[in-house]
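[User] At your convenience, examine this fold.
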Amino acid sequence: MVQSSAVRTHPEAPPLLLRVIYFLLFGWWFTGVWINIAWIFNLTLIGLPVGLWMIDRVPQILTLSPMSGVMQTVVQDGRVIVVGMEGIPQLSWLVRLIYFVFVGWWFSLLWSNAAWVISATIIGLPVGIWMFHRLPGVTTLMRR
């Protein structure tokens, strides 16, 4: 009997201490630069794919957070065989395009700059990091 399943995985992240040091020394300030460079790319039709790719990577730039994925497995004769890894299923590109054109492009710029300012305080840091991790979804409805 052959059974197939999909399991959402979270790749192993670097140790917490390393991520905290990275965030304090590099991640916080470079994320602000990264976002603004991404939006310069987003202002041009030619640069738009690069800008959106950069926005999708903001959580990784901020805290070295790995991207989630879906592992396809097959169970055959009681053994688990990993077939492959793929990204999390996304909404239709047309829905994401319409959302980006009418809402995502301007709202995500406000969202990301607000998150950057909020994360400048110790009290606001958890909210700012949460907001940065939601930025790809705010911009293009990308699921992480």
